[in-house]
Write a structure and sequence with these properties.
CATH class of the largest domain in chain B: Alpha Beta
Strand order of the largest sheet of chain B: 2-1-5-3-4
Radius of gyration of chain B: 15 Å
Radius of gyration of chain A: 25 Å
Strand content of chain A: 15-25%
Strand content of chain B: 5-15%
Order of helices and strands of chain B: EEHEEEHHHHH
Number of domains of chain A: 3
CATH architecture of the largest domain in chain B: Roll
Low-confidence stretches of chain B: none
Helix content of chain B: 25-40%
Shape of chain A: globular
CATH superfamily of the largest domain in chain A: Aldehyde oxidase/xanthine dehydrogenase, molybdopterin binding domain
Distance between the termini of chain B: 40 Å
Strand order of the largest sheet of chain A: 3-5-1-12-9-10-11
Largest interface: A-B, 57 and 55 residues
Low-confidence stretches of chain A: none
Oligomer: heterotrimer
Chains: A alpha+beta, B alpha+beta, C alpha+beta
Largest sheet of chain A: 7 strands, mixed
């Protein structure tokens, strides 16, 4: 491996482990020494209702109520569309929707006032069934080849339906934001967030100030995983409106239950797949992908785009037709979660391919292998796989780690005891960076390096370190190119008043895209370096020359410049008495290009993989017919503990990407994407295979196993 | 009425608030022990774990009145020790700290584990950390860091 | 102290309990989650008399304020109890949570209480000048409700010694391997004398607000050989299947029923 891969001590290690890092809840006073008021949201009790009035209790001195009427600018949070309000408009659209906020010095008193506030509702009929939902926020369709002809000429046609559930990000630090009116009239908003400039854009609009009237800072952030991509824009606007009215700093952070129930999650999905098989090969795929968007559209457009582009998987299928809809239900709006739409469709396509192989009497691994795309093949959107597809070699690597091929054959034999075993494989990609032309047309990232006279260099960018390590890897790249000690380069948490917009911390783009800008900036600085002088250099994003332009209106072209690749094998033992599935081994090979710090990348891979295993197995969350979420605490929504998995066996396969720094590609999301199909396929094999027990849903927990086994009895 | 006297990181203190207050809130709000993190207030995540008379507890599930006469150790106190330095180095060596929010609780759990069992097996380490949720790492790096610390710090526990 | 009492002795504690509206506090792991507004606690966690595990020849007596971790370290605590207690939550909870608290909290998912029910354990209750000893099964009325009087505290749990060394069956099924509340659990102890079953118990956690144990079915095991029981396994299962009740709950009744029946079958297989 390259020198840049060598692991170094993370720059934020000491303050974090010593407990000195200041997360949002850790502020006693503001930095300017002011008292901080506590804000709590008044939330809708109804999934859909007209709000006829709000009756406040007697408000003690120093306590105020704010709602939509206090918003200086627009009551629209700038996300993708403008349908998400800062505070509820005339109607509320989901249980928990913020109607207003009560603000005051004492937290307990604020809670009391919230609990004593009466809201007069006129209840309306909510939509709380995805299968009946008919309002599509987004409706896409694309394809190529002649699907109808392929189905007409097929030897066999397979049709199946797959469902996946919510997934809660379950970052250990809950959501929280704070707003401070400043002496010069500006509003300073900061907190636990991924995308300072998203919050900035939202604030500028809601506060009606324009971009110069607000600035945003990212505090130390206790995990994001997508959950703090869009939501801090909403909460940020709410605290800013309150701070403006109170003319005092206002902070709002949630308790765990509030966070679990009322903040965005991964979209539940319903995917209907139809595949044609001719002469032992899949010749056509027709898929209809439905995502449960919740009550407002927030990020659903982009989540759905990524999901449907991945819908045909990594298989070379000549005829493709895909439709995708994000439907409105009166439930909490879904948003971003690591993988961003792809885990849902990869679950469906991987299970589908495995089911077809079994129906044809073919070995699943071999059946998949003969369909793998390769370099030079067309993507689902008629772009190209410009670079080598290392999947076959990675399958071999996983086989070496797990003894996959032998075990797969062994577990295919009939099993009859209480404990039964299975091993499942998934093969997949994750498109690196933004979907489509967003990077070129919308983000237009800019990054800077500022050199001080003493020779220290500051990285100026807007990417947030949420645990993934950019405060370490960005300086590492810069120090490497400048050939100066790492101690001489630093990257602080971004403040939009000081840093250019290098884009959001999403889409596995930070290291690949912004890291490359910094690498080029460092080379530029090296070339003009004058000892003792203050100097600054700037780099702008340029789309790689090889890209086939992407057109969103017809889903044509390169949706991604390159892909990260993943192969997972999960081995399980199912206790048929209790349904409990014990994970015997979880194995993976991941190709994220060059790891710009081996330990940091391995940490991403292992952490993401376990989140995927949780998604596949025990992380169940659902809502009832009233639109109320059942699982709203760590007691009811279970995530894996240290004893729920053995040591994860992960290896890196390096296929360098020439336009990423030192060959690095997108990394963060990939490891989550393939765990669900690998796990569920393993359980399916343990239960006797798809002929006996074809499985179609994730997560698949102990209750699902028992319910499946009970079908045998009936 | 008397306050609640206890020893916090080797210093005697006297808490005069309600005995029913959560130790978590008392530590954070009254004594500014901000290493003690609140992740759930239900004993389900371990982010607020501290040592109570040398034993690991979730401070969200302890009432202030229950620590009368006891000794509480948080990372603010523990970070001055040799044992902490060994643990910190071991965590650093594997980049086991990502978002960092679970880490102070995790470190206290590791300290409790190694104090009771200086040579734990992998399974014993996982068991010892099983009440501390981490959403970032997948636990590999943390478990291995504790294992390395036990080796590096031979004799300290 | 404000909103709390920290008695130095059991006598002092009983006196306070008799006069004030206090909530007995042993480990706090359940009470603090509920975090009742305005609660006034009677802290029992430092009272030595409540922290002993002793053997009086007839019973193993577990003080109410003995923590699960302390129980796990004691040679006096029977293996079945250790297996159950070792699977409660995680170390930090086991370090604080107590046997008395687990019972007093009146949860129908309490792992140590299941074992007490299966063993036919008793609870010793004290108030000023009064002692009551009653079967745990009688003390635990239903979820959220026990026979504890307003002036009483739980002092000890009494495990009958003849059941402490008996063969046993225990299986807990939670949602994951740690930090998991029992969704279904089955515990039982039995004795074989002269080749036949001399005593038999089976207690279940399966939802519905109670621990389920059916002496009339258990009586049918007495006097039979293990082989006879296994040969008639389906009869026993049928009897349980007709008796066990499964109220609606977050975890489906179908799941709880299937699993508990599987475990009863497994228990019979291991006799």
């Amino acid at each position: 491996m390259r020198e840049i891969c060598r692991s170094i001590k993370k720059k934020d290690h000491d303050p974090k482990i010593e407990g000195r890092s200041r997360y949002l809840a850790d502020y006693n006073l503001t930095d300017s020494g002011r008292e901080i008021l506590c804000g709590k949201l008044l939330r809708s009790q109804y999934a859909r209702a007209r709000v006829k009035g709000v009756e406040l209790p007697d408000m003690p001195d120093g306590y105020i109520y704010v709602d939509a009427s206090d918003i200086p600018g627009d009551n629209n949070v700038n996300i993708v569309l403008d349908d998400t309000p800062v505070f509820a408009r005339e109607t509320v659209e989901y249980i928990g929707e913020p109607i207003g906020m009560i603000v005051g010095p004492d937290e307990k008193e604020v809670s009391r006032l919230i609990s004593e506030t009466k809201v007069d509702y006129e209840a309306l009929e909510p939509m709380t069934d995805l299968r009946k939902a008919d309002k599509a926020f987004f409706n896409y369709e694309f394809g190529h080849g002649d699907v109808e002809k392929a189905f007409a000429e097929a030897d066999r046609v397979f049709e199946e339906e797959f469902t996946t559930g919510y997934q809660e990000q379950a970052y250990l630090e809950v959501q929280g934001m704070m707003a401070e009116p400043e002496d010069d009239g500006k509003m300073y908003v900061h907190g636990s967030l991924q995308c300072p400039y998203y919050v900035h854009g939202a604030l500028a609009r809601a506060m009606g100030t324009g971009p110069d009237g607000v600035h945003i800072y990212q505090d130390v952030t206790g995990g994001g995983f997508g959950g703090k991509e869009d939501y801090p824009s909403i909460l940020g606007c709410q605290v800013a409106v309150a701070a403006k009215k109170a003319n005092a700093p206002v902070r709002c952070y949630f308790d765990r239950r509030e966070d679990m129930e009322f903040t965005p999650k991964r979209h539940p999905s319903l995917c209907r797949y139809k595949m044609a098989v001719k002469d032992g090969r899949v010749t056509a795929v027709d898929c209809d992908v439905i995502f449960d968007a919740g009550a407002y559209s927030t990020l659903s457009a982009v989540v759905l785009q990524r999901g449907i582009i991945a819908a045909p998987g990594i298989y070379d299928i000549p005829n493709v037709h895909v439709t995708g809809r994000a439907l409105k239900t009166n439930t909490v709006p879904c948003g971003a979660y690591r993988g961003f739409g792809a885990p849902q469709t990869f679950f469906a396509v991987e299970m589908m391919m495995s089911h077809i192989a079994q129906a044809l009497g073919e070995d699943i691994l071999e059946f998949k292998a003969k369909h793998y795309v390769k370099q030079g093949d067309k993507t689902s959107t008629n772009g190209l796989y410009h670079f080598p597809v290392p999947i076959p070699a990675m399958v071999d690597e996983v086989d070496e780690l797990s003894d996959l091929r032998r075990k797969h054959k062994e577990y295919s034999k009939p099993q009859s005891g209480r404990y039964r075993r299975g091993i499942g494989l998934s093969t997949y990609f994750h498109g690196a960076g933004f979907t489509g032309s967003g990077e070129r047309d919308i983000i237009k990232a800019v990054a800077k390096l500022h050199k001080y006279p003493d020779g220290t260099v500051e990285v100026l960018a807007s990417n947030s370190d949420i645990g993934q390590g950019v405060r370490t890897t960005f300086p590492k790249i810069v120090a490497h190119e400048l050939n100066i000690p790492l101690e001489k380069v630093y990257y602080d948490h971004p403040d939009t008043a000081r840093v250019p917009d290098s884009g959001p911390t999403v889409a596995s783009r930070s290291l690949m895209t912004v890291g490359e800008l910094l690498r080029r900036a460092a080379i530029k600085l090296r070339n003009i370096w004058v000892e003792g002088e203050e100097q600054e250099v700037e780099e702008h994003y340029k789309e790689p020359d090889f890209m086939i332009p992407f057109y969103l209106d017809r889903f044509e072209g390169d949706a991604y410049p390159t892909y990260a690749w993943g192969v997972n094998a999960i081995e399980v033992e199912v206790d048929t008495y209790t349904g409990v599935t014990n994970i015997l081994g979880a194995y993976a090979s991941f190709d994220v290009g060059t790891p710009v710090d081996y330990n940091i990348v391995m940490g991403q891979m292992e952490g993401g993989f376990l989140q995927g295993i949780g998604y596949a197995s025990i992380e169940k969350m659902d809502y009832d017919k009233n639109g109320k979420i059942w699982n709203r605490s760590f007691t009811d929504y279970l995530i894996p503990t240290a004893v729920d998995v053995p040591e994860l066996k992960v290896t890196l396969h390096v296929e360098e990407y020439p336009d990423g720094p030192y060959g690095a590609k997108g990394a963060g999301e990939l490891p989550l994407v393939g765990a669900a199909p690998a796990f569920v396929a393993a359980v399916e094999q343990a239960l006797g295979g798809a002929e006996k027990h074809p499985l179609h849903s994730a997560p698949f927990n102990a209750e699902d196993v028992i319910s499946e086994l009970n079908k045998e009895v009936k | 009425m008397d306050g609640i006297k206890f020893v916090l990181n080797s210093k005697e203190v006297c808490y005069t608030g309600s005995a029913a207050d959560r130790l978590l809130d008392v530590l954070r709000d009254t004594y500014d022990m901000k290493s003690v993190k609140c992740g759930c207030k239900e004993g389900e995540c371990g982010a607020c774990a501290v040592l109570l008379d040398g034993v690991l507890v979730n401070s969200c599930c302890v009432a202030a009145g229950a620590v009368e006469g006891s000794e509480i150790t948080t990372v603010e106190g523990f970070r001055e020790t040799e044992q902490f330095k060994v643990l910190s180095n071991a965590f650093a060596g594997l980049s086991a700290v990502q978002c960092g929010f679970c880490i102070p609780g995790m470190v206290m759990a590791a300290q409790a584990l190694l104090s009771a069992n200086p040579h734990p097996t992998d399974d014993e380490i996982r068991e010892g950390l099983s009440g501390n949720l981490c959403r970032c790492t997948g636990y590999n790096a943390i478990v291995n860091a504790v294992k390395n610390a036990a080796k590096e710090g031979e004799g300290l526990w | 102290m404000v909103n709390g009492y920290s008695p130095k002795s059991l006598q002092q504690a009983l006196l306070i309990r008799s006069k004030e509206a206090v909530i007995p506090y042993a480990g706090g792991t359940d009470l603090m989650v509920q975090n009742k507004k305005g609660a006034v606690y009677l802290f029992l966690n430092k009272i030595d008399e409540l922290r002993q595990i002793t053997d009086d020849g007839e019973y193993i007596r577990i003080g109410a304020a003995v923590t699960f971790t302390e129980g796990l370290k004691s040679d006096l605590i029977p293996q079945i109890m250790k297996e159950a207690v070792s699977r409660i939550a995680a170390p930090a909870i086991r370090n604080a949570g107590t046997f008395g608290g687990n019972l007093g909290n009146a949860s129908d998912k309490a792992d140590s209480v299941l074992i007490e029910v299966a063993m036919g354990a008793k609870v010793r209750l004290l108030s000023v000048g009064r002692e009551r000893i009653m079967p745990v099964e009688e003390f635990f009325i239903k979820r959220g409700n026990t026979a504890l009087a307003d002036d009483e505290i739980i002092a000890e749990i009494l495990l009958p010694k003849d059941k402490c060394s008996a063969p046993f069956y225990y299986k807990k099924v939670g949602g994951r391997n740690a930090l998991a509340i029992s969704r279904v659990a089955l515990a039982g102890v039995y004795e074989i004398k002269d080749g036949v079953i001399a005593s038999f118990s089976a207690a279940a956690i399966a939802g519905g607000g109670v621990f389920q144990r059916y002496p009339e079915i258990e009586a049918g095991f007495i006097g039979k050989t293990a082989d006879e029981i296994k040969a008639n396994k389906s009869e026993y299962l049928k009897a349980y299947s007709e008796k066990l009740t499964f109220a609606r709950g977050r975890v489906s009744a179908e799941y709880r029923k299937t699993v508990i029946m599987n475990l009863i079958g497994d228990y019979i297989d291991t006799l």
